[in-house]
TrEMBL record:
Belongs to the class-III pyridoxal-phosphate-dependent aminotransferase family. It catalyses: N(2)-acetyl-L-ornithine + 2-oxoglutarate = N-acetyl-L-glutamate 5-semialdehyde + L-glutamate. It comes from the Eukaryota. The keyword Amino-acid biosynthesis applies. This is acetylornithine transaminase. It comes from Pisum sativum. One of its GO terms (biological process) is primary root development.
Length: 469
């Protein structure tokens, strides 16, 4: 295994200048001309633009939007509380609805569109492979699948890869692999460990196994009984987790190095190292869920690299194919050797089209300069947000690493989300609905970061209006 170095998690204020390696802001808070941000993408000229400070009139809900909303209500299962926007096209970090309104996209399809919309290399990978071979099932071998597995193994702790179609499917596979590993390694006369540990504020998916590992009660209750044997512990409470692991009943510990849906909470090195040590002693597997925080979003290829602590299994999904559905489970040979033919599988997973696109995404994001830029842009974004929002009494904390940022509020965030959308900015909530989640495409430019910070600053007053009602 290649050696890895651990980077410090010192406070942003004390390390900002050092982390930027002497890059200084001028009076306009711009980076120097040679700052390496991504190539700008020009949106379609027919679309309305949002100019911060002097916003142009936005087209209200029109006939086409109303028709789509009515049809959706008629024909789709009502599992989503959608906003009344019908998106039609996108380029770079911009999206456009059917009325011609332009939006700066800081949701990126819930941290999926890491290269933004319509990236040239992404599109070429789609078109090239679609014209050659799209789907074969896993009865046969294909070159893109094997090449993607080789690249993932070569850039991580892992020895083997299993492909799925989504993050929740990746976590389902990790659950099954953990159970099988414990059964495979259990000595005669001893019952194998079958229970799991997950943590407060965690989110691992919505299928029956993954939802059982998800802390939000409202996600589990309608479908009970879900998979038994899951123990929830406070995120960061190493002593409680270690004590439970030492009892010998835990098959695996599932933990997100940075919680996305849970509210943008980061683990500490001490917490993850304690889990690693306890798992090693007890024969328990350590699973890192990097479905949202992995593949470059933190400025490291994998979020756990910053801590110098490595898992037995890692689950990936969201950004891996830049907008097309894929999941992956990365695991060590020790775990993989317990899995036999026919014990798990998928018809669509790891198809040549998806894997060829994922290779193009991985090749781009894994470049050191690309990852360095994500770190720099994340630091710049947090600094701007602290300058523009930090003095507001509703803003409790601005936290995160790289381009996964949370604005913790003392009131519900939905009025701010709505106001930002009406001003041309798409953002998400997290936590208990009180955290603004910013997960823009990793190609976002300095100018777009400034535009987003300005819109957030100019719409923050809606929290006062909402709170006074």
């Amino acid at each position: 295994m290649a050696s890895h170095t651990c980077s410090s998690n010192s406070s942003f204020q004390s390390s900002f200048t050092n982390k930027l390696k002497s890059i200084q802001f001028n009076n306009n808070r711009h980076f120097p001309p040679n700052f390496p941000y991504p190539r700008s993408l020009t949106p379609p000229s027919a679309s309305l633009r949002v100019d911060v400070g002097a916003p142009k009139a936005r087209v209200e809900t029109g006939k086409k939007t109303k028709e789509v909303i009515e049809d959706e209500a008629k024909f789709l299962v009502g599992t989503y509380a959608r906003v009344p926007v019908v998106l039609e096209k996108g380029k770079g970090c911009k999206l456009y609805d059917v009325e011609g309104n332009e939006y700066l996209d800081l949701s990126s399809g819930i941290a999926v569109n890491a290269l933004g919309h319509g990236d040239d290399d992404w599109l070429k990978a789609v078109v090239d492979q679609a014209g050659i071979l799209t789907h074969t099932s896993n009865v046969y071998l294909t070159i893109p699948q094997v090449e993607l597995a080789k690249r993932l193994v070569g850039s991580s702790f892992a020895d083997r890869v299993f492909f799925s179609n989504s993050g929740t499917e990746a976590n389902e596979a990790a659950i099954k692999f953990s159970r099988k590993y414990q059964k495979h390694t259990c000595t005669e006369g001893k019952a194998p460990a079958t229970e799991f540990i997950a943590f407060s504020n965690c989110f691992h998916g919505r299928t029956m196994g993954a939802v059982a590992l998800t802390s939000k009660v409202q996600y589990r209750t309608p479908f009970e009984p879900v998979m038994p044997g899951v123990n929830f512990i406070e995120y960061g409470n190493a002593p409680a987790a270690v004590e439970l692991i030492q009892q010998g009943k835990i098959a695996a510990v599932f933990v997100e190095p940075i919680q996305g849906e849970g509210g943008i909470y980061s683990a500490t090195k001490e917490f993850l190292q304690s889990l690693r040590n306890a798992c090693d002693e007890a024969g328990t597997l350590l699973v890192f869920d990097e479905v949202q925080c992995g593949l470059g979003r933190t400025g490291h290829l994998w979020a756990h690299e910053a801590y110098g602590v490595f898992p037995d299994i890692m689950t990936l999904a969201k950004p891996l194919a830049g907008g097309l559905p894929i999941g992956a489970v990365l695991l060590t040979e020790r775990v993989a050797s317990s899995i036999k033919y026919g014990e798990h599988g998928s018809t669509f997973a790891g198809g040549p089209l998806i894997c060829n696109v994922a290779l193009a995404v991985l090749n781009k994001i894994s470049k050191p300069n690309f990852l360095s830029d994500v770190s720099k842009k994340g630091l710049y974004f947090k600094e701007l947000l602290k300058q523009k929002l930090g003095g507001n009494p509703h803003v409790k904390e601005i936290r995160g690493v790289g381009l996964i940022i949370g604005i913790d509020l003392d009131v519900p965030a939905s009025p701010l989300v709505d106001a930002c959308r009406n001003s041309g900015l798409l953002i998400l909530t997290a936590g208990k609905g009180n955290v603004v989640r910013l997960v823009p495409p990793l190609i976002i430019t300095e100018q777009e970061i400034e535009q987003a910070a300005d819109i957030l600053s100019q719409t923050l007053h809606v929290l006062d209006a909402n709170n006074s009602k």
